[in-house]
Write a sequence for this structure.
């Protein structure tokens, strides 16, 4: 399969986000938006930015939630419902989960829930947590450090198991209704399943905006100031990825791609136009004390107050998904010009692929369910192909660890494809 030609955001130019001003050059018809999120903290910053746009320009239609990363399904849905109620948008349908599965022969049944990465998905919603174990305690995200119930107004909508619309139902209905721009700010599991089961609807996906991965990034976390001779940099300093819980085994991974690399591969190779906002850009816009001090002076709305109170727990982080939403709106407002002109970042085209397994390819070491003991690989994948190598089984996978080094050799990453 050919590599994906991606418009890459590689250098952040500005830290300021503007509200809903100006007019899209695309058309007088509002741009239909669908967001797929894991409802981590930075995700709802991004959602609030999109919800603040003028609906005559940008109309957020639906939101789907990936429940295989930072948050649990019920908590994530209720948090999102409260935010939508605060913003007067109870009309937005929210999809999550589903009880469907994938047969041993690779047949994808309706309403696969996205609770597991594709490599571990079977006919059950219970399975391995090879990637999810990299996620630290999720209680803080589920409750937003206790702020959700104590701060947000609460409407009547609540998560009800087996009644809640599924992620696949919401995606199919929304994209079937017309041309839609998709913004992916979590793992790609839900959208990859949609693409694999409904290729006929690709024509209705106008563009995909992705926050994820690193291409030529250098992690600034743990690095020393240039003139500080007494400082010793940590192992995270200078690595490509941001997997702070697992860089000793995988220094290349970024969380959104790491949680389901095969799903990311399906999206990147879908043939749909993609704009990628990787760590290369977001590493340059940290949330600093200076930023918080300035933000404190602009607390005129309930949503601004909620973001500010949350950011008090969120220092030493970066503007990942929120920056992506700004890039997406700015590009669309500028009329989707060929080179992705926008207010915030420099752009360039690159041919990228996603590394989903480690060389040597064709090994049978029990780490790769796509191939383990199979005469015919799952999804008819190619024997000895790029998906057939060792797949990281956990943070302490011995294959990934290097004696005497605090950074490992396993890769889940974007790779430039020539």
């Amino acid at each position: 399969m050919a590599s994906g030609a991606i418009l890459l955001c590689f250098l952040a130019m500005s830290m300021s986000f503007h509200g809903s001003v100006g007019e899209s050059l695309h058309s007088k018809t509002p741009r239909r938006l669908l967001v797929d999120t894991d409802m981590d903290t930075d995700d709802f910053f991004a959602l609030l930015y999109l919800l603040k746009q003028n609906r005559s320009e940008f109309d957020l239609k639906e939101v789907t939630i990936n429940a295989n990363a930072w948050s649990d399904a019920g908590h994530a849905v209720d948090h999102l419902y409260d935010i939508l109620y605060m913003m007067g948008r109870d009309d937005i349908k929210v999809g999550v989960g589903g009880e469907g599965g994938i047969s041993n022969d690779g047949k994808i049944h309706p309403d696969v829930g996205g609770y597991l990465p594709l490599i571990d998905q079977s006919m059950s919603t219970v399975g391995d947590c090879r990637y999810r174990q990299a996620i630290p305690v999720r209680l803080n995200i589920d409750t937003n450090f206790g702020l959700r119930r104590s701060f947000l107004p609460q409407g009547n909508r609540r998560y009800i198991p087996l009644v809640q619309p599924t992620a696949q139902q919401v995606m199919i209905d929304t994209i079937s209704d017309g041309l839609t721009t998709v913004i992916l700010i979590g793992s790609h599991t839900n959208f990859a399943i949609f693409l694999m089961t409904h290729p006929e609807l690709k024509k209705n996906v106008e563009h995909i905006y992705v926050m994820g991965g690193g291409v030529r990034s250098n992690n600034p976390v743990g690095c020393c100031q240039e003139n500080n001779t007494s400082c010793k940099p940590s192992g995270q300093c200078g690595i490509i990825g941001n997997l702070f819980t697992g860089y000793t085994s995988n220094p290349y991974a970024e969380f959104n791609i790491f949680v389901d690399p095969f799903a990311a591969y399906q999206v990147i190779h879908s043939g749909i136009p993609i704009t990628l906002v990787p760590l290369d850009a977001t590493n340059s816009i940290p949330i600093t004390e200076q930023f918080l001090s300035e933000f404190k002076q602009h607390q005129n709305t309930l949503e601004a107050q909620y973001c500010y109170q949350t950011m008090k727990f969120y220092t030493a982080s970066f503007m990942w998904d929120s920056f992506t939403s700004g890039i997406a709106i700015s590009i669309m407002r500028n009329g989707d010009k060929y080179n992705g002109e926008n207010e915030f970042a420099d752009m360039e085209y690159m041919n990228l692929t996603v590394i989903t397994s480690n060389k040597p390819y064709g090994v049978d070491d029990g780490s790769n369910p796509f191939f383990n003991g199979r005469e015919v690989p799952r999804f008819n994948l190619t024997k000895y192909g790029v998906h057939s190598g060792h797949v990281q089984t956990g943070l302490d996978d011995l294959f990934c660890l290097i004696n005497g080094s605090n950074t490992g050799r396993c890769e889940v990453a974007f790779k430039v494809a020539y």
The chain is about 25% helix and 15% strand.
